[in-house]
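Continuing the batch. This is chain 6 of the set; chains 1 through 5 are on the previous pages. Same settings as before, nothing changed between runs. Recording input and output for traceability.
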Amino acid sequence: DEVFNEESENLMFDDENFEPRDNVFDEDYGSSSTDGTSAVEEKFMKEFEAFEREFSEESQEWRDQFATVERYEYKDDPEGQKEFRGHLVVAC
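Output for chain 6:
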């Protein structure tokens, strides 16, 4: 089984499946209306922990080249929400 979820990777802002929770500025960012996403996240964390154990003798810098996990904390920013005007996408 693969951890990569092609459906969420190709989600565009003008896609009819784009929900408010998919916006990084939404209070519910990262939550999902489906249990499938949490199962994928749980599976990824198991694989990530196995990777960390298997290559524990390597430096953290080396392991970070292949996989990292970042947890984001929601901070209420009324001024930022008021000033938010949309996303800038630059593609070459």
